[in-house]
Amino acid sequence: MEKLSFKLMELIALSLGLEAKRFEEFFMKDQTSFIRLNHYPRCPNPDLALGVGPHKDIGALTILAQEEVAGLEVKRKVDEEWIRVKLIPDAYIINLGDIVQVWSNDAFESPEHRVVVNSEKERFSTPFFFFPAQETEVKPLEELINDQNPSKYRPYKWGKFLVHRFNTNFKKRKVDNIQIYHYKIKG
Length: 187
Ligand SMILES: O=C(O)CCC(=O)C(=O)O
Ligand SMILES: [Fe+2]
Known about the structure:
Layout (H helix, E strand, L loop, with lengths): L1 H14 L9 H4 L5 E2 L2 E3 L9 E6 L5 E6 L5 E4 L6 E3 L8 E4 L1 H6 L9 E4 L6 E8 L6 E2 L17 E2 H11 L19
The structure holds 2-oxoglutaric acid and fe (ii) ion.
């Protein structure tokens, strides 16, 4: 998974006109990546519940292995419709995260997604979250910004963002969880 992530980051760098290894430095030492094992039990009222509510992944990439049962849905931007991601045997689903959105200064966008449950089958999924080192200062890459395309985000420290997110994730809160749009520079 890690090797694949490095490869995918190379392709993203090339697609942005950067040198292939541009992102490597953020992950070489003390990256904060991890794998989560998700279990979604059967649900008698799948219309009334969600496995995971709508969100965007906060890291650089997510590589998701889902087993025999589908359930991941992505919000289509044009009409805000939730589209089910097809189950392809032995294939990973690659999701771009918020960090790539910030690094690319919005050239890439992390998609909103959610997980639905079903009444017949329980579901298992295993996402690998490719996260940089804690000290990483996340901000649009200097090579990609100029007078015509000014930086759209203020820099933020990844470690702090992560701790804040983990501390608030499973609590009821009156305010929104920490999000990259809090760092957005209004233009
Ligand atoms: O279980 C899935 O298919 C996706 C879970 C997910 O979106 C997440 O853990 O961030
Ligand atoms: Fe997710």
